[in-house]
Amino acid sequence: MPGIRLDAASYAVTGREILSNLSFTLTERRIAVIGRNGSGKTTLLRLMAGLIAPSSGTVQVEGMDPARDRKAMLDRLGILFQNPDHQIIFPTVGEELAFGLKQQGRTSDEAAGLVSDLLARHGRTHWEKAPVQTLSHGQRHFLCLLAILAMQPATILLDEPFAGFDMPTIARMSRMFDALPQRLIAITHAPHTAANADRVLWLEAGRIRADGRPGDVLPQFEAEMARMGAVDADTDLAL
Ligand SMILES: Nc1ncnc2c1ncn2[C@@H]1O[C@H](COP(=O)(O)OP(=O)(O)OP(=O)(O)O)[C@@H](O)[C@H]1O
Fold first, then answer.
1. Where are the domains of the chain?
2. CATH entry 3.60.15.10 includes domain 4-230
3. 119-42-143 Cα angle (round to 5)
4. 129 pLDDT more than 70
5. What is residue 86's three-state secondary structure?
6. What are the TM regions of this chain, as residue ranges (predicted)?
7. Residue 43 Cα, ligand 1 centroid: separation in angstroms?
8. Which of 19, 22, 41 has most ligand 1 atoms within 8 Å of its beta carbon, as the pocket-test mutant?
9. What is the ipTM for the molecules in this complex?
10. CB of 13 closer than 6 A to ligand 1?
11. For a substitution probing ligand 1, which of 39, 160, 187, 207 has the most ligand atoms within 8 Å of its CB?
12. Average pLDDT estimate for 71-80
């Protein structure tokens, strides 16, 4: 059962449906999720990661329920949040990177060896003993990505990975993402970063408005965003 499969999946909070009756199977290598503020993109990522369970319907990752099979998800899914401070729990870079590896069953020595190799591969050997607070926001975000890469999951979920970075950093991150063998599912607000995806899902008010190749979906999305931008853009935002 390769890929991520949703079957009539809905998610409601205090009686309000945030995601409604979503059904699709994601097997492509590069998938972009687009949509306006509040359309449900982050909630969809959390649902696919098993951080929340559907109110009705099912979510399966490689044939398993991600909200129940938490241990199995360690090898299968990584999620990079927008805010690294929601992810980092240890005081030093080395400890943060070793944590997930130990969760996967490595000994402390094995984890330490893998952390050193990983940091060396990314030219960050000098980070190993560094206190996390000494890193900038962008560097902490990169640390979170390294923590995911260390665990080598089959799929990485990215919540607006380019938000808040300068142009050279975005170019460097793009090159690194392009080279990753994993399946990447990325939320983006910038249609041009979705242009190279194999598949684009456009979410609107918790439903799929369009699903297809970027060449088909992005022109419709951009035209609709331009149309909305020309009128009072906030009046139809979901609260
Ligand atoms: N735990 C929660 N309790 C109440 N409402 C929630 C909760 N989580 C999400 N929502 C609501 O669900 C809707 C979708 O939120 P979500 O964060 O998934 O949107 P998004 O598309 O990622 O938005 P943005 O682009 O602004 O990050 C919003 O209206 C939000 O207020």
1. 4-230
2. no
3. 10
4. yes
5. helix
6. none
7. 6
8. 41
9. 0.96
10. yes
11. 39
12. 90
Residue 190 to residue 176: CA distance in whole angstroms:
18
CA–centroid distance, 32 to ligand 1, in Å, is 18
**What pLDDT does 193 receive?**
81
Say which amino acid occupies 160: E
pTM attached to this predicted model: 0.90
Q: Starting from the edge strand earliest in sequence, which strands make up the sheet with 155-159, in order?
A: 77-80, 155-159, 183-187, 30-35, 199-204, 207-212
Residue 104: is its pLDDT beyond 70?
Answer: yes
Token pair of 211, please? Answer: 């699903």
Q: Is 35 in the pocket of ligand 1 (CB under 6 A)?
A: yes
- Report pLDDT for 205: 95
pLDDT of 133 > 90? The answer is: yes
